[in-house]
Amino acid sequence: MSGTTAWLIRGAKVLAEDGWDDGAVLAVVAGRIAYRGDLRALPRRLEVAGTEVGRQSLEEIQAEGGYLCPGFVDIHVHGGGGADVMDASPGALRQIARTHARHGTVALLATTVSAPYEHVRRVMEAVQETSDGLDEGSEILGVHLEGPHLSPRRAGAQNPEYLTPPDPRELEALMERFPGLLAMVTLAPELDGASELIELLHRSGVVPAVGHSDATYEQAVEAFQHGAQHAVHTFNGMNPLHHRAPGVPGAVITTRPVTAELIADGFHVHPGVARLLWQVKGPDRLVLVTDAMRATDLPDGRYELGGLEVEVHAGAARLAGSETLAGSTLTLERAVRWMANEVGVPLADAVRLASQNPARRLGLGDRLGSLEVGKDGSVVLLDGELRVRLTLHQGWVLYDGQGSEYDEAEAERSQDALGDGPAAAGGLGAEPEAEPSASVLARMEHEEEL
């Protein structure tokens, strides 16, 4: 089901500023939240952005329990459903957007891997073409450039062939050609010229992020002082934390304003270390990301990432023939569930790590990340097992619990060059999902009491 209308969602615990509100309803009109509160106090008429509707005109969604949350925001996602950002096509981007919308993500940053700038420009052209007219999947907020200015010592699954020293001229040209499209750039701060590049990005309103780095503690702290604001997949793609050489992780932990990404899939970081990061960064500075690659929502098998062969086994993506993790098959739905169930983070806070914090990191907290009146009507409904049963983006129904929304033909096209990869593009991801329930959308006439 797709389309936008005026909605009234009832029967769920609604995430408010101070926790879960068991008795609240939520109304979405003209793509924005028009009301949150007691059903008995719902006004007879609701007006948002010049659109006025009577309460009898609201289409009702019976949640039948569960948790109504702000839609998730993923600031580090490479692919999904058989498609990759580096495919540099609107079709691939739509496939990724549809795939992650099924799991509660309402907005994302299309994230690159290290590649020549000519290829990066093709990606940005595709994003520019796609972001203006996407109404069937997650909103593409912009581009996260992960590389190519990374440390060869901490390349991880980044193709070392494409790693280069920082070049402000290339990035200036990119920002001039695609104004406002570049949202974040990950780089290694110990490289020559990195400080100048960090300052350029900071002045330009782009988030400079530290990642794939072998920097000392002192070098990383200096980068944060020059304007770096964010750490990419903390503890992964960086030197380890040591009591005599704290390195990048030590600088991230001890520099309070810096936000820290976490890939909460049970492969990248032990639950105890995730708990440590949660306790240090608290509810405001920790950001859940997926780092998802094209195998997300597909069966185990052989895939490609940045020109490198990847093998997915039991949901873990690794460079072929090695133990090096190569992105993930994670969704934010599963990341929130893992943080709540395995790490012990209160559910309300786990949700905020995937919604409010990434939205604020991008400067979009005025419209995304919480269920306040006037913000985007972008919400996700989780059932009692913390599985997504409904995704709305600005009032559009992106997913309503009925089957798969991704394009199998696009997934097969993306896999054409991979030889004997997975035969079916419609399989589930690493963690088997429950069978889809009947649609949670219950359209009915309002009771007279409304």
TrEMBL record:
Its cofactor is a divalent metal cation. Residues 405-450 are annotated as: Disordered. CDD domains: NagA (cd00854). Keywords: Carbohydrate metabolism, Hydrolase, Metal-binding. GO terms for biological process: N-acetylglucosamine catabolic process. SUPFAM superfamilies: Composite domain of metallo-dependent hydrolases (SSF51338), Metallo-dependent hydrolases (SSF51556). Residues 67-384 form the Amidohydrolase-related domain. Pathway: Amino-sugar metabolism; N-acetylneuraminate degradation; D-fructose 6-phosphate from N-acetylneuraminate: step 4/5. It comes from the Bacteria. It catalyses: N-acetyl-D-glucosamine 6-phosphate + H2O = D-glucosamine 6-phosphate + acetate. It is an enzyme of class 3 (hydrolase). Its EC number is 3.5.1.25. Pfam families: Amidohydro_1. InterPro entries: Amidohydro-rel (IPR006680), GlcNAc_6-P_deAcase (IPR003764), Metal-dep_hydrolase_composite (IPR011059), Metal_Hydrolase (IPR032466). One of its GO terms (molecular function) is metal ion binding. Gene3D superfamilies: Metal-dependent hydrolases, Urease, subunit C, domain 1. Belongs to the metallo-dependent hydrolases superfamily. NagA family. This is N-acetylglucosamine-6-phosphate deacetylase. It comes from Limnochorda pilosa.
